[in-house]
Amino acid sequence: PTAPPRRSICELPDELISQIAAGEVVERPASVVRELVDNALDAGAGQIQLKLLAGGVRSLVVEDDGCGIPDSELPLAIKRHATSKIRSLDELEAVATMGFRGEALAAVSSVAELALVSRFDGAPHAWRLDARSGELSPAARSRGTSVEVRELFFNTPARRKFLKSEGTELGHCLEALRRHALARPDVGFTVWHEGKLVDQWRASSLAQRVAEVLNEDFVSQSREVMAEVGPLRIHGRVGLPEAARSRADMQYVYVNGRYVRDKLIAHAIRSAFDDVLHGQRQPSYVLFIDITPELVDVNVHPTKIEVRFRDGREIHQQVRRAVVAALALSRTSDGVTDDL
Ligand code: ADP
Ligand code: MG
Question: If you take atom 17 of ligand 1, which residue's CA is the nearest one?
Fold first, then answer.
């Protein structure tokens, strides 16, 4: 085969760089939900609202009552690699915020129409930044930030074609919100679709939040997990073997507050069930693993859905042990529900 003629090396325009980078983090409306809710939580929000039109494709708005962004920094917020969350490698290694890459808003603005409306703590009024025109104008809202995302992938039609039906995209958006809601029962969440209230979860305890977000039965059919070993704290709820499901659709693992998919942890939990879970039955759980940030690398995946532990064996062993202990308790408790 003959190679195509060589073309000279050129630097890509910024816009295209952002669109390529966006491919890694923005796959569908649910990815935008994940990024915007991360930002709202990092801003210290106590209430977060998600408003969707057409499964989030036509319009996706996240409103929070967090600290806001000063007008002088609004243009920076949508610039690539611009962040208020880290300043140095040391800070990256100890990062406690959900975000740190300074990429999400830039990525979203390269594949959708984006506007930020924000009122910084103590500012006399809000400001609105239209990402496309760069225009800043006075606006009205209380303290906090609204991020408005319209017509996702309008300028990348090939990617827009990959989107599924409105109902499917809505489902993914709701699942993204559930992941956050389970991790932050202290924060209130409201979600609207086409002007109709879909879900509302008021700030409450973990058990209450789990009951509302997953289902009432999960709480009575699960046991509390609680273990502390050195720099490691494992807590949450794990479903009893009887409550195992045919699908792995109720498995939530968080490392330092961030939802992750981790084979090692999934395996550790599964192995705790050992002989009591038959065949393809899937355990259900909501498990939080908190560990000194220096002992886990969160910068291995653009969406941060994967992490790398410095000592995976130790994590595996402790998670397994914690879940075994929780399940053993249930066998001697005559099925009596734990105190929530
Ligand atoms: P990152 O979250 O990694 O810093 P983003 O692109 O998501 O990058 O956001 C860029 C910056 O914009 C953040 O560092 C933060 O300072 C600011 N920002 C974004 N969303 C909000 C929000 N909802 N409230 C306050 N500040 C925000
Ligand atoms: Mg962010």
Answer: 77
Binding pocket residue ranges, ligand 1, CB within 6 Å = 35, 39-40, 43, 64, 66-69, 77, 83-85, 99-106, 145
What is the tally of structural domains in the chain?
A: 2
- CATH code for position 218: 3.30.230.10
Checking if the pLDDT of 134 tops 80, the result is yes
Among 49, 105, 298, 301, residue to substitute to test ligand 1 (most atoms within 8 Å of Cβ): 105
For residue 49, the enclosing domain spans 14-201
> Do both 192 and 238 map to the same domain?
no
Structural domain includes residue 3? no
Give dist(CA 172, CA 291) in Å, integer. 29
Please, are residues 224 and 333 in contact by the beta-carbon 8 Å criterion?
no
Tell whether 173 and 311 lie within a shared domain: no
Enumerate residues 6+ apart whose C-beta is below 8 A from 184: 41, 257
Three-point CA angle 83, 85, 90, nearest 5°: 115
Q: How many Cβ atoms are within 10 Å of 315's Cβ, its own excluded?
A: 23
Nearest CA among 92, 93, 146 for reference residue 115: 146
Residue among 39, 129, 141, 303 to mutate when testing ligand 1 (max atoms within 8 A of CB): 39
Tell me the C-alpha to C-alpha distance, in Å, between residue 337 and each of 240, 321, 331: 11, 21, 11
pTM, to two decimals = 0.94
47 and 183 fall within a common domain: yes
Statement to judge: residues 245 and 278 lie in one domain: yes
Q: Do residue 196 and residue 220 come from a single domain?
A: no
User: How is 6-19 classified by DSSP, letter by letter?
Assistant: P----PPPHHHHHH
Q: Measured between alpha carbons, how far is 4 from 24 in angstroms, rounded to an integer?
A: 28
Residue 43 belongs to a domain: yes
State the ipTM, two decimals: 0.99
Question: Is the pLDDT assigned to residue 302 strictly greater than 80?
Answer: yes
Q: What is the pLDDT of residues 227-259, one digit of tens each?
A: 999 999 999 999 999 888 888 899 999 999 999
For residue 279, what pLDDT band results from cuts at 50, 70 and 90? Answer: confident
Question: In angstroms, rounded to a whole number, what is the distance separating the alpha carbons of residues 44 and 65?
Answer: 8
